[in-house]
Amino acid sequence: MVNIFYALLRKVTISLVRSNYLWHSANGYYLTAEKKCMRLELLYTPGCPNLPKARVLLRETLQSLGLDLSPREIEVSDPGQAEAEAFPGSPTIRIDGLDIEPESAPTVGSGFRIYETGTGAPDGQLLKFKIAQAAGQRTVLFICTGNAVRSQMAEALVNHFLKGRWAAFSAGFLPAGINPLVVKVLKEIRIDAARQPTKHLDLFNGLTFDRVITLCSDADRMCTFYPAYGNRVHLPYTDPLTLSTFGFGWKGLFRKLREDMRNQLIPYLESV
After folding, report:
1. Which of 98, 150, 200, 205 is deepest in the core (most CB within 10 A)?
2. Could you give the CA distance from residue 129 to residue 144 in angstroms, rounded to a whole number?
3. Looking at the predicted structure, is the pLDDT value of residue 2 above 70?
4. Is the pLDDT of residue 9 over 80?
5. For the segment 32-48, what is each residue's pLDDT rounded down to a tens digit?
6. CATH architecture assignment, domain 137-271
C-alpha cells in the first residue's frame, strides 16, 4: 500500500513539473520548476487609502503573467510590529522578503508610503518585471524609437502566445503613445492591448533582461549609449507608417506587421 502511494505521488509530481507549475496557496507561496519557492507579501496599515489600488495592481500583474497566486496580506497595526517587520509604510510589496522598491523605503514607519511614481503604488511595469523574474519566467525587452507601433505589437504578441514562459516589455527613446491601429489589429486576434502604456527606455535602467531586441535601426544605434543593453539582438521591421498604402490600406499594413512578427518572433523566442 505504501509503495502504491509513493508511486502515485511520484507520478503526480512529475506531471506537475512538466507543466512548470508545482504548487500555490493563498499564503503567497508559488513553486515552479525553475525556482524552489517565491513568496509574495502585501503589508499594510488599517485604513490605508492606497491598499485597494495595490491589491488591483497585484491581481492584474499576476493575471498578466499567468500566475495563479494570492499574495499573503499582513496587517501592521502597531509600532512594535512595524519595527519587527522593518515596515517602511503602507502599502508595501515584498518578493521573497525583499522590498520591490527599496530606494523609496529608507526608514521604518507606520505611515502611508509614496513610491517613485509619486503615488501610493509602485510602477506596474517594474512590479511585473520583478515578479516574473522571481517566478522563473524569462524576460524580453523590445525597443523602437517611439514605442508606438513595432515594440508595442511585439510586446502584446509575446505576452499572449508565450504567457507563463516569457514576460515581454517594450520601450522607446521618444515615446509617442500606442498607435490605435495596433490596438485594432491585435483585437482581431483577441489580444487586448488598449491599456498597454507607453514607456521611455530609462524606466528599465539597471534591469537585466534575458533578451533585448531592437526593432529599428535608430533604436539599435541609440542602444550603444546604454551599456546594460550592449548584449542585444537586432531584428528590424519596417514601420508601416512609412510605407505606401497602395493595395493594402493602413490596416492591411498593420495586419502584415502583426503576422510577420507572430511568425518570426514567437518561434525565435521559443528556440532560445
Report:
1. 150
2. 19
3. no
4. no
5. 544 447 899 999 999 99
6. 3-Layer(aba) Sandwich (3.40)
